[in-house]
């Protein structure tokens, strides 16, 4: 009888070892690729949301700027919040000193109530007009907020405050699209 050798040959042991090393290498590569894909997906989702977040932030900043402009002493009517002085606006209309003061390209104030046709205010037709433009020729602007447009008026020799609903619009440098 021939005795079988239970010992494995040294070459066979090396082959099994090499095979296990190859399996481990392929598993490490597969796990690395898997986590790379997960990371790529996560980064793409974050960058997609980032653009929307930037646009929302710019809009909020612009709306805050409208409120800030309405509250400046150059616009405020007798210290009343959210009330804009139409007489002051008519003076500012012709002043180039304030053109870059607020950091906007232009300001448009449009009376909403009582409704009437769009008539741009000039020194000749004021107060019988409903659109006051500061530093711009456009009729509308990017961002708007509601304000009271007030001025001093007289009836039978007595003075009173006349306020009307208006829309304060600003034209900004940044595009909000």
What is the string of helix and strand elements? HEEHEEEE
Structural class: alpha+beta
% residues in beta strands: 25-35%
Could you describe the largest sheet, including whether it forms a barrel?
Answer: 6 strands, mixed
Mean pLDDT: 84
Number of separate strands? 6
Poorly predicted runs of 5 or more residues: none
State Rg: 36 Å
**Helical proportion?**
25-40%
Total helical segments: 2
Distance between the termini: 91 Å
Strand order of the largest sheet: 1-2-5-6-3-4
| Rough outline | rod-shaped
Question: Oligomeric status of the shown chains?
Answer: single chain
Please tell me about this protein's structure.
With 177 residues, the chain is an alpha+beta fold. It has a domain at 62-171. The protein has 2 helices and 6 strands, in the order H-E-E-H-E-E-E-E. The protein has helices spanning 10-70, 86-93; strands at 76-77, 80-85, 106-111, 131-134, 143-155, 158-171. Strands 1-2-5-6-3-4 form a 6-stranded mixed β-sheet. Strand 1 and strand 2 form a beta hairpin. The protein is rod-shaped.
Key attributes of the depicted protein:
six-stranded mixed β-sheet; rod-shaped; 6 strands; 39% helix; alpha+beta; 177 residues; single chain
Question: What's the short version?
Answer:
With 177 residues, the protein is an alpha+beta fold.
SSE blueprint and pairings:
Blueprint: H1 10-70, E1 76-77, E2 80-85, H2 86-93, E3 106-111, E4 131-134, E5 143-155, E6 158-171
Parallel strand pairs: 2-5
Antiparallel strand pairs: 1-2, 3-4, 3-6, 5-6
